[in-house]
Every structure is written in C-alpha cells, then in structure tokens.
Amino acid sequence: QVQLVESGGGLVQPGGSLRLSCAASGSIFSIMYMGWHRQAPGKQRELVASISSSGANYAESVKGRFTISRDYAKNTVYLQMNSVKPEDTAVYYCYLVSRGTYWGQGTQVTVSS
Questions:
Q1: Which of 1, 15, 91, 102 has a beta carbon 3.0–4.6 Å from 106's, enabling a disulfide?
Q2: Which of 106, 84, 104 has its CA nearest to residue 96?
C-alpha cells in the first residue's frame, strides 16, 4: 500500500506564492509519474502538473506560474505556485503512478484578498 501526505495549502492573496508538498511512503516500486490535480467547486478534477524521468508537463492555465519538482531520495513532489489567481482556488490532490495509481487526501488552496 502507498500513502501520500500533502501539506502547504492555505489562504494566499492574489499575486502571492504558495508551495505544496506531497510525501509518498509505503510499498513504493518504480514510480512512473508524480503530480498534482485540482478540483474547484462545481468543476471537474483537472491535471495541474506532472513529472517523470522524461520531464514535466503543465496545464496551459498554470504554465509560467507554477513549477513542479521532485526529490527522488525522499519520494516527495513539490508544486511551487507563484503569481496565483483567484481561479487557482481549489482542492489540490497529489497523485503517484507506479504499479497502480494512488491519491492523497487533498489540500485546500484559497486565493482571495
């Protein structure tokens, strides 16, 4: 079994920054992808960013503002969120693809003045 624990969510003002972290533990084998999805109220869950040995991918709406990175030794993935906008408000879910797909419990990000 794999466990994902997210941290770093909270309230931030428009134009501000926030850093999300997600630590994976448990029976982890070869990790193919780690990344983040988000779900805003009344909307479908959408991919924000993912990272693998081939590189990183981003949703068009966050390109140039968000950066995903990974600490392989710690099995941890990060999402640096800069220049945040009110439309970034959502619950952010970490995920990991290995022999299966695993999800974190989600962390709330609220962008508001």
A1: 91
A2: 104
- Look at phi and psi of residue 106 and say left if phi exceeds 0, alpha if psi is from -120 to 50, else beta: left
Length, in residues, of the chain: 113
Tens digit of each residue's pLDDT (9 = 90 or more) over 14-55: 999 999 999 999 888 788 899 999 999 999 999 999 999 999
pLDDT in tens, 74-112: 999 999 999 999 999 999 999 999 989 999 999 999 999
The contacts of residue 41 (CB under 8 Å, 6+ apart) are none
Segments of the chain assigned E as strands:
2-7, 10-12, 18-26, 33-39, 46-52, 55-58, 66-71, 76-81, 90-97, 101-103, 107-111
The token pair that represents 34 in the structure block: 């780690």
